From TrEMBL, chain A:
It comes from Paraoerskovia sediminicola. This is Sugar ABC transporter permease. It is a multi-pass membrane protein. It comes from the Bacteria. The chain crosses the membrane at residues 6-23, 35-54, 86-111, 117-135, 155-175, 207-226, 238-256, 261-279, 285-305. It is found in: Cell membrane. Keywords: Cell membrane, Membrane, Transmembrane, Transmembrane helix. InterPro entries: ABC_transp_permease. The lineage of its organism: Bacteria, Bacillati, Actinomycetota, Actinomycetes, Micrococcales.
């Protein structure tokens, strides 16, 4: 890791140290476990969005895809609405559906040449529509013992969901580091024309990145369902911008070509530590939103100082 | 009559044109089979000519779905059908849908509307006034907009959030034996509902001096956010927490999950709205109390008031000023009475024209 990438981790350590100094409740083992548990879903979602951002695209389909996957999984595992009890298969189907929705975003981008901002916004609406149809007015509550245990049972002090998040970050990192998909995602973000001129067909890789992102969001939706023991249409509400914020705070640039999974993981921790710490030190809820926004801006500004180049245009 | 703006003039123009057209050409607009009455004598409508419209944010919300079901129940009672409209919490879409309604035949149009926010109410009211439609709104209106200034806007119904916040606050105090620490989960801080409900909790706290508010945080009325915030509060205050006050049931249910994950069973939880999952939780003894505004009744009552006026059984002038903008009765639900609310049904007698204001708890102050 070069000096250029050191900003966000330093910011994380500084913010952690400040909260630890201010609040005895913050520096307990239980609270650190709590922070990791709270970061789990956001970490998985951010894994997906990071690849999209690395390509220089944007993805706003998170709320819709997570909602569709949350309702799907809630209706396929043991629940109070029907007699399904598919267990892991149900989870697999929900993630596949999410991947298909992600694939739809990618196809609309490369085939119809609609900018990713609009296609993903549209796919989000489609996902929410599918979720609302399946919801049908009655909340599906999950009774599946395995899915419920993911949020409740612990291994080495952390919920199973948190270990799933660690696994996702590892998988994401391996894909980014060792697969052609990951390296091309970087290259597309850095200089798509150069890549195309050197004979690489970029379109399939773009579709693949969106499909993989969709699968991550789908897993995120499954995890929210596990935490709430219920399938909610709004399962993914707010995760689109939370994930983009986490990725950018971690040092992934919106113009693409820079950053990566580990950067984003740091960003996720930073955002989660912030919202946890502000509650722990007792900042009034009326102030929290503003204070949180301010710290994020300062953290991003501090993090990009080493990357700043002369004559760089910021838009 | 004075036109205040070009869009208004255009809207009225279109409305008049549409009315005239529909009088000549259109046979059946809604469910009725007689020709539409036209613009002539607008004072009374044949019951069969009345068009009933219920509009809420979305049907994926059990409360709002039950509202529309209540509207259907009333419509069935008078031999009509209700047009169910939803706008996904999108103010622009709500206005578009309503403009479309006003572009059709409005002489016997009865609307029971849930405005998306306070600021969405004035254009709906102005439109109804110009179109001569019969309008009842619920929950949201700007405080300085007076229903009595209009004749098409028949009534505005809302609930006293201070009262419900206090009711569950008192129920929580009783559940923890009158003393101990509680935490509060507030709604979206800049909404009237969140402010009023929290003010109610503060009233309850001053009456129960041994109950201490350890912390108040916002979870934006969201189940997922309430889960995270409650987990953090549980690590912060630990066993000092004896009760959790939530400004709605979704947050209460999120808090219940957090308690389950933390292995805590000694904490009482209260909420507001009476969503189905909360009622189940109360039946199972996991949750202590909630407050119901009776969604099906809300869905029926707005249509009933409009229907009574449209058919001439009730005259706008005869509605007392205090019944033009009023607080409706709400019900505290605890374990002993939860059975009555699990499958709420509308009562036909509530919608009789001489009984439509029977649930009033007084005018909105």
């Amino acid at each position: 890791m070069s000096l250029r990438d050191a900003g966000p981790p330093i910011a994380l350590v500084v913010i952690f140290a400040v909260f630890a100094a201010l609040s005895p409740g913050f520096r307990t083992i239980a609270n650190v476990q709590n922070i990791f548990d709270a970061a789990a879903v956001l970490a998985v979602v951010t894994c997906g969005i990071t690849f999209v951002l690395m390509m220089g695209s944007i993805d706003l389909s998170t709320p819709g895809i997570m909602g569709a996957s949350a309702i799907t999984v809630a209706l396929l595992v043991a629940n109070n609405r029907n007699d399904n009890d598919l267990g892991l298969v149900g989870i697999g189907i929900a993630v596949l559906l999410a991947a298909a929705l992600g694939c739809l975003s990618g196809l609309a981008l490369v085939v119809l040449k609609v900018p990713s901002f609009m296609t993903t916004l549209g796919v989000s609406a489609v996902g929410l529509g599918v979720a609302t149809l399946m919801f049908g007015g009655v909340q599906p509550n999950v009774t599946d013992a395995m899915l419920e245990s993911w949020a409740v049972d612990r291994f080495l002090g952390l919920a199973y969901l948190t270990w799933i998040a660690f696994a996702c970050v590892l998988v994401g990192w391996l894909v980014q580091r060792y697969s052609r998909l990951g390296r091309y995602a970087y290259a597309i973000g850095g200089a798509e024309e150069v890549l195309a001129l050197s004979g690489v067909k970029v379109k399939p890789y773009k579709v693949a990145v969106f499909t993989m992102a969709g699968a991550f969001y789908g897993l995120g939706g499954v995890m929210v369902t596990s935490q709430l023991s219920a399938g909610l249409v709004q399962a993914g509400r707010g995760y689109d911008f939370a994930a983009i914020t986490a990725a950018v705070v971690g040092g992934t640039l919106l113009i693409g070509g820079r950053g990566g999974i580990l950067h984003s993981a740091v960003g996720v921790l930073l955002v989660t530590v912030l919202s946890n710490g502000l509650v722990q030190v007792g900042v009034s809820p009326y102030w929290q939103g503003g204070v949180q926004g301010l710290i994020v801006v300062v953290a991003v500004a501090a993090a990009v100082i080493p990357q700043r180049r002369r004559n760089q245009v910021t838009k | 009559m004075k036109f205040t703006s070009r869009p208004a003039a255009a809207l009225i123009g279109v409305a008049i044109a549409a009315t005239t057209l529909s009088a000549c050409t259109e046979e059946a607009v809604g469910s009725d089979d007689t020709a539409a009455a036209g613009g002539g004598d607008a004072s009374t409508c044949e019951p069969a000519d009345v068009t009933l419209v219920g509009q809420v944010r979305n049907e994926s919300n059990p409360y709002e779905a039950s509202w529309l079901d209540g509207g259907d129940a009333f419509a069935e009672q008078v031999g009509l059908t209700q047009e169910r409209l939803t706008y996904d919490g999108d103010s622009t879409r709500q206005q578009e849908q309503i403009s479309q309604l006003f572009a059709g035949d409005t002489s016997c149009l009865v609307m029971n509307i849930l405005p998306n926010g306070d600021s969405d109410t004035p254009p709906i009211v102005e439109g109804a006034q110009d179109a001569g439609a019969y309008l009842v709104t619920q929950w949201n209106k700007p405080a300085d907009l007076a229903v009595t200034d209009y004749d098409s806007w028949l009534s505005h119904i809302t609930y006293n959030g201070v009262e419900s916040g206090k009711q569950i606050g008192d129920a929580l105090a009783e559940a923890i034996g009158g003393s101990g620490g509680i935490v509060a989960l507030q709604g979206i801080l800049d909404t009237g509902a969140a402010k009023d409900r929290f003010a109610g909790l503060e009233e309850s706290l001053s009456a129960n001096s041994d109950v201490e508010l350890l912390d108040d945080q916002t979870a934006n009325f969201s189940r997922a956010e309430a889960l995270e915030v409650t987990k953090t509060l549980l690590t912060k205050h630990g066993d000092d927490i004896k009760g959790i006050w939530a400004a709605n049931d979704d947050m209460a249910l999120g808090a219940l999950e957090a308690l389950k994950q933390a292995g805590r069973t000694d904490v009482a939880v209260v909420g507001i709205d009476a969503v189905p999952d909360a009622l189940t939780a109360i039946e199972d003894g996991e949750m202590t109390a909630t407050v119901s505004s009776d969604g099906p009744w809300q869905g029926g009552i707005g249509l009933a008031i409009g229907y009574c006026v449209a058919t001439g059984e009730l005259a706008v002038e005869d509605i007392a000023d205090e019944d033009r903008a009023w607080y409706a009765e709400q019900f505290l639900i605890e374990k002993d009475n939860v059975g009555d609310f699990v499958s709420p049904e509308t009562d036909e007698s509530d919608f009789a024209c001489d009984n439509v204001f029977s649930r009033s708890q007084g005018p909105i102050s």
